[in-house]
Amino acid sequence: MFQKLYNPNLREQKEIVVTNDGSCTLYSAEFDECYHSSSDGAFNESLQKHVLPAFKLAAKKEKLTILDICYGLGFNTLATLWYHKQNNLESKLHIIAPELDRNLVESLQDFSYPKEFESFRDIIQALSKEFFYEDEQIKIEILLGDAREEIKKISSKIDIIYQDAFSPKKNPALWTYEWFRDLKQISSKDALLTTYSIATPIRLGLFENGFRVYEYKTDTTRKSTIASLKELPLDEVDMKLKLQRNPNAKALRDSDLIQ
Ligand SMILES: C[S@@+](CC[C@H](N)C(=O)[O-])C[C@H]1O[C@@H](n2cnc3c(N)ncnc32)[C@H](O)[C@@H]1O
Q1: pTM of this prediction?
Q2: Which comes out higher in pLDDT, residue 87 or 258?
Protein backbone atom coordinates (compact mmCIF):
# COMPACT_ATOMS: atom_id res chain seq x y z
CA MET A 1 0.00 0.00 0.00
CA PHE A 2 1.10 3.53 -0.73
CA GLN A 3 0.36 6.43 1.50
CA LYS A 4 1.13 10.11 1.50
CA LEU A 5 4.76 9.89 2.48
CA TYR A 6 5.24 13.62 2.52
CA ASN A 7 4.69 16.32 5.07
CA PRO A 8 3.17 19.62 3.87
CA ASN A 9 4.17 21.24 7.19
CA LEU A 10 7.76 21.14 5.96
CA ARG A 11 6.97 22.81 2.60
CA GLU A 12 9.04 25.93 3.28
CA GLN A 13 12.16 23.92 4.20
CA LYS A 14 14.35 23.71 1.13
CA GLU A 15 18.11 23.64 0.63
CA ILE A 16 20.23 24.37 -2.40
CA VAL A 17 22.10 21.36 -3.80
CA VAL A 18 24.80 21.68 -6.48
CA THR A 19 24.40 18.78 -8.92
CA ASN A 20 27.04 16.95 -10.97
CA ASP A 21 26.78 19.20 -14.05
CA GLY A 22 27.29 22.29 -11.87
CA SER A 23 23.65 23.40 -12.01
CA CYS A 24 21.76 23.96 -8.76
CA THR A 25 18.59 22.23 -7.63
CA LEU A 26 16.74 22.18 -4.31
CA TYR A 27 16.21 19.54 -1.67
CA SER A 28 12.60 19.45 -0.42
CA ALA A 29 12.14 18.50 3.25
CA GLU A 30 8.40 18.10 2.51
CA PHE A 31 9.07 15.19 0.12
CA ASP A 32 12.53 14.32 1.47
CA GLU A 33 13.83 14.35 -2.12
CA CYS A 34 15.71 16.61 -4.48
CA TYR A 35 13.90 18.24 -7.41
CA HIS A 36 16.46 16.67 -9.78
CA SER A 37 18.92 13.81 -9.83
CA SER A 38 22.16 15.13 -8.38
CA SER A 39 24.17 12.49 -10.26
CA ASP A 40 22.62 13.20 -13.69
CA GLY A 41 22.72 16.97 -13.09
CA ALA A 42 19.66 19.23 -13.01
CA PHE A 43 20.08 20.92 -16.39
CA ASN A 44 21.50 17.80 -18.04
CA GLU A 45 18.64 15.63 -16.76
CA SER A 46 16.02 18.05 -17.96
CA LEU A 47 17.57 18.34 -21.39
CA GLN A 48 18.52 14.69 -21.93
CA LYS A 49 15.57 12.85 -20.36
CA HIS A 50 12.79 15.22 -21.36
CA VAL A 51 13.44 17.98 -23.88
CA LEU A 52 15.76 16.32 -26.43
CA PRO A 53 13.80 13.06 -26.85
CA ALA A 54 10.52 14.96 -26.93
CA PHE A 55 11.66 17.30 -29.69
CA LYS A 56 13.37 14.53 -31.65
CA LEU A 57 10.49 12.06 -31.45
CA ALA A 58 7.26 14.03 -31.16
CA ALA A 59 5.30 14.79 -34.30
CA LYS A 60 6.58 17.94 -35.97
CA LYS A 61 3.77 20.43 -35.63
CA GLU A 62 3.42 24.17 -36.17
CA LYS A 63 2.02 24.46 -32.67
CA LEU A 64 3.11 22.21 -29.81
CA THR A 65 1.24 21.98 -26.53
CA ILE A 66 3.41 20.71 -23.68
CA LEU A 67 2.27 19.62 -20.22
CA ASP A 68 5.06 20.05 -17.67
CA ILE A 69 4.24 17.87 -14.62
CA CYS A 70 5.06 19.67 -12.38
CA TYR A 71 6.64 23.14 -12.73
CA GLY A 72 8.91 22.92 -9.65
CA LEU A 73 11.96 25.07 -10.43
CA GLY A 74 10.86 25.26 -14.05
CA PHE A 75 13.90 23.49 -15.55
CA ASN A 76 11.86 21.48 -18.06
CA THR A 77 9.97 24.55 -19.26
CA LEU A 78 13.13 26.69 -19.41
CA ALA A 79 15.25 23.96 -21.08
CA THR A 80 12.46 23.70 -23.67
CA LEU A 81 12.72 27.43 -24.36
CA TRP A 82 16.52 27.14 -24.53
CA TYR A 83 16.43 24.22 -27.00
CA HIS A 84 13.78 25.92 -29.10
CA LYS A 85 15.82 29.13 -29.32
CA GLN A 86 19.17 27.38 -29.91
CA ASN A 87 17.70 25.52 -32.86
CA ASN A 88 15.80 28.51 -34.26
CA LEU A 89 12.60 26.50 -34.28
CA GLU A 90 9.61 28.31 -35.65
CA SER A 91 6.88 26.28 -33.97
CA LYS A 92 4.62 28.01 -31.48
CA LEU A 93 4.85 26.64 -27.96
CA HIS A 94 2.09 26.47 -25.40
CA ILE A 95 3.41 25.15 -22.08
CA ILE A 96 0.99 24.29 -19.28
CA ALA A 97 2.55 23.50 -15.90
CA PRO A 98 0.56 22.62 -12.77
CA GLU A 99 2.28 23.32 -9.46
CA LEU A 100 0.94 23.33 -5.94
CA ASP A 101 3.77 25.25 -4.26
CA ARG A 102 2.93 28.92 -4.94
CA ASN A 103 5.68 30.27 -2.66
CA LEU A 104 8.28 28.25 -4.55
CA VAL A 105 7.28 29.74 -7.91
CA GLU A 106 7.24 33.24 -6.40
CA SER A 107 10.78 32.71 -5.10
CA LEU A 108 12.23 31.66 -8.47
CA GLN A 109 13.08 35.17 -9.64
CA ASP A 110 16.06 34.91 -7.26
CA PHE A 111 17.01 31.31 -8.06
CA SER A 112 20.56 30.62 -9.24
CA TYR A 113 19.79 29.14 -12.68
CA PRO A 114 22.38 27.79 -15.15
CA LYS A 115 23.79 30.32 -17.65
CA GLU A 116 21.70 28.74 -20.42
CA PHE A 117 18.60 30.32 -18.83
CA GLU A 118 20.13 33.81 -18.56
CA SER A 119 18.22 35.19 -21.55
CA PHE A 120 14.91 34.10 -20.04
CA ARG A 121 15.13 36.39 -16.97
CA ASP A 122 12.08 38.38 -18.08
CA ILE A 123 10.06 35.21 -18.54
CA ILE A 124 11.14 33.83 -15.14
CA GLN A 125 10.19 37.18 -13.59
CA ALA A 126 6.75 37.21 -15.26
CA LEU A 127 6.06 33.61 -14.25
CA SER A 128 7.03 34.18 -10.65
CA LYS A 129 4.75 37.24 -10.43
CA GLU A 130 1.83 36.48 -12.77
CA PHE A 131 2.21 32.68 -13.25
CA PHE A 132 1.72 33.50 -16.93
CA TYR A 133 3.81 34.65 -19.89
CA GLU A 134 2.92 35.23 -23.51
CA ASP A 135 4.61 36.61 -26.62
CA GLU A 136 4.12 35.95 -30.37
CA GLN A 137 5.68 32.48 -30.16
CA ILE A 138 5.43 31.31 -26.58
CA LYS A 139 2.63 30.99 -24.06
CA ILE A 140 3.30 29.59 -20.58
CA GLU A 141 0.66 29.02 -17.93
CA ILE A 142 1.40 27.81 -14.41
CA LEU A 143 -1.76 26.27 -12.96
CA LEU A 144 -1.51 26.74 -9.20
CA GLY A 145 -3.16 23.85 -7.40
CA ASP A 146 -3.35 20.07 -7.31
CA ALA A 147 -2.38 18.67 -10.72
CA ARG A 148 -5.03 15.93 -10.39
CA GLU A 149 -7.70 18.63 -10.42
CA GLU A 150 -5.96 21.23 -12.58
CA ILE A 151 -5.52 18.97 -15.61
CA LYS A 152 -9.30 18.49 -15.78
CA LYS A 153 -9.58 22.19 -16.75
CA ILE A 154 -7.27 21.83 -19.77
CA SER A 155 -9.10 22.13 -23.07
CA SER A 156 -6.06 22.02 -25.44
CA LYS A 157 -4.85 18.64 -26.74
CA ILE A 158 -1.43 17.84 -25.29
CA ASP A 159 1.40 16.75 -27.63
CA ILE A 160 4.21 16.28 -25.11
CA ILE A 161 4.07 15.42 -21.41
CA TYR A 162 7.08 15.81 -19.15
CA GLN A 163 6.12 13.44 -16.31
CA ASP A 164 8.52 14.72 -13.65
CA ALA A 165 6.75 14.49 -10.28
CA PHE A 166 8.60 13.45 -7.14
CA SER A 167 9.11 9.68 -6.95
CA PRO A 168 6.17 7.22 -7.00
CA LYS A 169 6.98 6.37 -3.40
CA LYS A 170 6.73 9.98 -2.21
CA ASN A 171 4.20 11.41 -4.69
CA PRO A 172 2.10 8.33 -5.67
CA ALA A 173 -1.05 10.25 -6.71
CA LEU A 174 0.81 11.48 -9.80
CA TRP A 175 1.82 7.98 -10.94
CA THR A 176 -1.36 5.88 -10.87
CA TYR A 177 -3.27 4.16 -13.68
CA GLU A 178 -6.06 6.74 -13.15
CA TRP A 179 -3.62 9.66 -13.42
CA PHE A 180 -2.31 8.31 -16.74
CA ARG A 181 -5.91 7.69 -17.86
CA ASP A 182 -6.70 11.37 -17.20
CA LEU A 183 -3.54 12.43 -19.02
CA LYS A 184 -4.50 10.33 -22.02
CA GLN A 185 -7.92 11.97 -22.13
CA ILE A 186 -6.35 15.38 -22.78
CA SER A 187 -3.63 14.06 -25.13
CA SER A 188 -3.45 14.26 -28.90
CA LYS A 189 -3.55 10.87 -30.68
CA ASP A 190 0.24 10.91 -31.22
CA ALA A 191 1.21 12.27 -27.79
CA LEU A 192 4.53 11.38 -26.21
CA LEU A 193 5.45 11.23 -22.52
CA THR A 194 8.94 11.39 -21.03
CA THR A 195 9.76 10.25 -17.51
CA TYR A 196 12.74 9.28 -15.39
CA SER A 197 10.82 6.37 -13.81
CA ILE A 198 11.59 2.89 -15.11
CA ALA A 199 9.54 1.08 -12.45
CA THR A 200 7.30 -1.73 -13.75
CA PRO A 201 4.11 -0.55 -11.90
CA ILE A 202 4.50 2.85 -13.56
CA ARG A 203 5.17 1.41 -17.01
CA LEU A 204 2.14 -0.88 -16.53
CA GLY A 205 -0.07 2.10 -15.69
CA LEU A 206 0.98 3.66 -19.00
CA PHE A 207 0.71 0.41 -20.96
CA GLU A 208 -2.78 -0.39 -19.63
CA ASN A 209 -3.87 3.03 -20.88
CA GLY A 210 -2.72 2.23 -24.41
CA PHE A 211 0.72 3.84 -24.34
CA ARG A 212 3.59 2.00 -25.98
CA VAL A 213 6.53 1.86 -23.58
CA TYR A 214 10.15 2.44 -24.64
CA GLU A 215 13.44 2.28 -22.79
CA TYR A 216 15.61 5.35 -23.28
CA LYS A 217 19.28 5.88 -22.38
CA THR A 218 21.86 8.54 -23.08
CA ASP A 219 25.61 8.63 -22.42
CA THR A 220 25.18 11.06 -19.54
CA THR A 221 21.96 9.93 -17.84
CA ARG A 222 20.60 6.75 -16.33
CA LYS A 223 17.89 4.75 -18.09
CA SER A 224 14.50 6.43 -18.43
CA THR A 225 11.15 5.81 -20.11
CA ILE A 226 9.46 7.26 -23.17
CA ALA A 227 5.78 6.36 -23.60
CA SER A 228 3.90 7.13 -26.75
CA LEU A 229 0.47 6.72 -28.29
CA LYS A 230 2.13 6.16 -31.68
CA GLU A 231 4.94 3.78 -32.64
CA LEU A 232 8.45 5.17 -32.18
CA PRO A 233 11.85 4.11 -33.63
CA LEU A 234 13.14 3.04 -30.19
CA ASP A 235 13.56 -0.23 -28.26
CA GLU A 236 10.03 -1.11 -27.19
CA VAL A 237 9.61 -2.82 -23.83
CA ASP A 238 7.57 -6.01 -24.21
CA MET A 239 5.11 -5.37 -21.39
CA LYS A 240 3.10 -8.54 -22.13
CA LEU A 241 6.25 -10.62 -21.68
CA LYS A 242 7.06 -8.73 -18.47
CA LEU A 243 3.60 -9.64 -17.16
CA GLN A 244 4.02 -13.29 -18.17
CA ARG A 245 7.33 -13.43 -16.31
CA ASN A 246 5.97 -11.59 -13.31
CA PRO A 247 2.20 -12.24 -13.05
CA ASN A 248 2.09 -10.40 -9.72
CA ALA A 249 3.22 -7.12 -11.27
CA LYS A 250 0.48 -4.49 -11.13
CA ALA A 251 -0.04 -0.90 -12.09
CA LEU A 252 -0.22 1.49 -9.16
CA ARG A 253 -3.90 2.47 -8.66
CA ASP A 254 -5.71 5.23 -6.81
CA SER A 255 -7.21 2.52 -4.57
CA ASP A 256 -3.64 1.71 -3.40
CA LEU A 257 -3.26 5.21 -1.95
CA ILE A 258 -4.04 5.73 1.72
CA GLN A 259 -5.31 9.29 2.26
C1 LIG B 1 10.40 16.73 -8.84
S2 LIG B 1 9.64 18.30 -8.68
C3 LIG B 1 9.50 18.88 -10.34
C4 LIG B 1 10.81 19.31 -10.92
C5 LIG B 1 10.60 20.22 -12.08
N6 LIG B 1 10.22 19.51 -13.27
C7 LIG B 1 11.82 21.07 -12.30
O8 LIG B 1 12.36 21.07 -13.40
O9 LIG B 1 12.22 21.74 -11.35
C10 LIG B 1 7.96 17.91 -8.35
C11 LIG B 1 7.07 19.14 -8.18
O12 LIG B 1 5.72 18.67 -8.10
C13 LIG B 1 5.02 19.49 -7.18
N14 LIG B 1 3.84 18.70 -6.78
C15 LIG B 1 3.80 17.58 -6.01
N16 LIG B 1 2.55 17.10 -5.94
C17 LIG B 1 1.78 17.91 -6.71
C18 LIG B 1 0.41 17.94 -7.04
N19 LIG B 1 -0.42 17.00 -6.57
N20 LIG B 1 -0.03 18.91 -7.85
C21 LIG B 1 0.80 19.87 -8.32
N22 LIG B 1 2.13 19.91 -8.04
C23 LIG B 1 2.61 18.94 -7.25
C24 LIG B 1 6.00 19.77 -6.09
O25 LIG B 1 5.65 20.94 -5.37
C26 LIG B 1 7.30 19.94 -6.92
O27 LIG B 1 7.50 21.28 -7.25
Answers
A1: 0.96
A2: 87
